[in-house]
Amino acid sequence: MVVGGVVGVLTTEVAAWLGASILTFAFIFAMVFWFQSRSKQKTGEDVEGESIEREEEVEFQGAIIDERDPIVRDRMIEAFIEDFHINRDKAENLYDAGYSRWSDFTEAIPEDLLMVEGVNPTVARRIISTVQSRK
């Protein structure tokens, strides 16, 4: 493009100069459009400016993951079993009740956990103390 523009100016060929100018304009326009679309995607909008829904993602051991992934569900249930010393049924019930990540337990009180099937007061206190000790 630049070479065509320089050749057009040096040889006074209007067609070469005009073609290079149009190509340069098109290139600049494309770059501006690309930068705008990338910045909109980072803010949660698609190219047309409409809001797009992002799947809820969670950080698990340093990686961003999709919370609805069955593998993530199994990993979190295994983590609950190990960390809270509870059986699989209780861990699954906690996950299904909405306690799907550590941050969900940070503001929980024993009375909230008692509403989950299979969780008794001893287990609820153990979960709360485990989460508080890791803050």
SSE inventory with pairings:
Elements: H1 2-11, H2 14-42, E1 57-60, E2 63-66, H3 70-84, H4 88-96, H5 102-105, H6 110-114, H7 121-133
Antiparallel strand pairs: 1-2
Number of domains: 2
Number of helices: 7
SSE order, one letter for each helix or strand: HHEEHHHHH
Helical percent range? Answer: 55-70%
CATH topology name of the largest domain, in short, is DNA polymerase, domain 1
Describe this structure in words.
It is built from 7 helices and 2 strands. With 135 residues, the chain is mainly alpha-helical. It folds into 2 domains: 2-42; 57-133, Orthogonal Bundle (DNA polymerase, domain 1), CATH 1.10.150.20. The chain has a two-stranded antiparallel sheet. β1 and β2 (63-66) form a beta hairpin. Mean pLDDT is 75; it is low at 43-65.
Task: Quickly list its features.
135 residues; mainly alpha; DNA polymerase, domain 1; 2 domains; two-stranded antiparallel sheet; 2 strands; rod-shaped
Outline of the structure:
This protein folds into two domains: 2-42; 57-133, 5' to 3' exonuclease, C-terminal subdomain (DNA polymerase, domain 1, Orthogonal Bundle), CATH 1.10.150.20. It is built from seven helices and two strands; from the N terminus they run ααββααααα. It has helices at 2-11, 14-42, 70-84, 88-96, 102-105, 110-114, 121-133, and strands spanning 57-60, 63-66.
